[in-house]
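Working notes for the structural subgroup meeting. M.R. asked for a predicted model of this chain before we commit to crystallization trials. I am recording the input and output together here so anyone reviewing the notebook later can reproduce the run.

Input as submitted:
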Amino acid sequence: MSYPLETRLFRGKTVLSMIGPPLEDGGLAVRGGEILDVGPWTQLMAEYSGAFAEDLGEVIIMPGLMNAHCHLDYTMMRGALFGEGSFSAWIQRLNAMRRSLDQRDYLDSIDAGLRELKKWGCTTVFNIESFPELLPFLPESKVRVWWFLEVMDIRSRMQSAEALAGAIHFFEKVGEGGEGFGISPHAPYTVSSDLYKLTALFAEKYRIPLCTHLAESKEETDMFVRGEGELHQFLHSIGRLMDDCTGKTPVQMLLASPLLPKGSILVHMNHLDEEDRDLLRRSAGSYPVVHCPRTHAFFNREPFDLKFFQDSSIPLLLGTDSLASNQDLNMFSEMRAMADSFPSLDPRDLMLMATRNPAAAIGRSGRLGELSPGANADFIVLEDQKGEGDPYERALANTRPPRVWISGHHEEI
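Returned structure, recorded in C-alpha cell form:
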C-alpha cells in the first residue's frame, strides 16, 4: 500500500515507547502532528512504502519529557536565592525580588524558561502562573503548556470570590474544557477553606485540572498543628487570620473534609504523619503527587518517602519547580538526581514519572508521554552515549541537548 508523502518515517537504534518493551532497530511513522505507527524499521519500511524515510542514526528515540511542576515566572532568579535558614525567610526573600520586577521582566523570564525546557527535551510543562494578567501577552512557544492560574486570599482573607474573579473572567472567554489550562489554589497557608471549595467547583465546571502545594515544609506543619513557628509568625504579621491553626495537619485539612476533588495534583508532600498516610492509602490513585528532587535538596529537607508512595500505589510525577530553588530546567538532571537519591528505583519507573504519569494526571493518556498510534508526535532523539546495557539507563545518562520534535515538527534549539 502506498501512503502520501506527508507520512514520514524516523528510525533509531532503540525506541522507548514507554508503553511496551524497548524496540531495537525500530522507528515511528508520523503523519502531520500524530504518530501513525511504532514498530520494527523493516516492517515500517514495507508497510509505508511511499513515505519519506529518515534514518536518525544510532540514537534513542523516546517521548518528549513532561515537567509536572514549574514556575516559569521566576526563571530570571537563577542563583539569586539560597536555601539555608527557614522556609518563611526564603519566601520573604522571594517576595522582595518579585516586587522589584515588572511585567516585561516576567514575560522575558517565561520566554527564557520555555526555551530552556525545550533545549533539554521537555515538550510539555505544567506551569503555575502567578500573574494571570500576563496571559494575553505570553510569548509564542511550541512547548505545550498547561497554565495553572494561581489564586490565594491570604491577606485578611478577602472575599474568596474576589480571589477567583480574574480566573473566572478568563475562563468565561476560553470556555469549558479549555485546552492547556488549570487552576492552582496555592497552599493551605495562603488559601482559605472557602477558596479551596470555590476552586474545586470551578475546576469541575470548566473541566480543568487542579493542583496545590501541600505539606511542603515542617514550618507549615508547625503552623497548623501547634500554632507556632516562623511561618506562623510571618503570616500573622502580614494580616493572615490564624483561626484554622487548630491541630490538624495540612493534608488532613484538605483530604479529610474533603476540600479537593479527586484527581487534584498534590505538589511536594514532604511532611506526613501516620494519619496523613492513612488518608492517602484510603484514596490510593486519586491524588497524583509531584516530587521535585533538586528543590528538595536545595532546602536540605528530610528524605522523600518514596517507598510509602510506591507501596500505596500513588502515582508519582517529577518537576523542576522554579529557578528560585533550582539551578536549571533540565528534566534529565532531575531524573538523575532522583536516581542518585534512590538507587534501587527502576529506571523505567523513573522515566514514567516524567512521561506517562504526568499525561494521565491531566487526562491526556494515549496522547502525551508515550509513542503510540494516535499520540501527538512529540518525541526526542538522544545520542546513545553508552551504546550498550539497559536502554533506560542509557537514556537517563544523556547529558547533551537532544533533538526535539513537537507535533511532528523538528524544533530548532
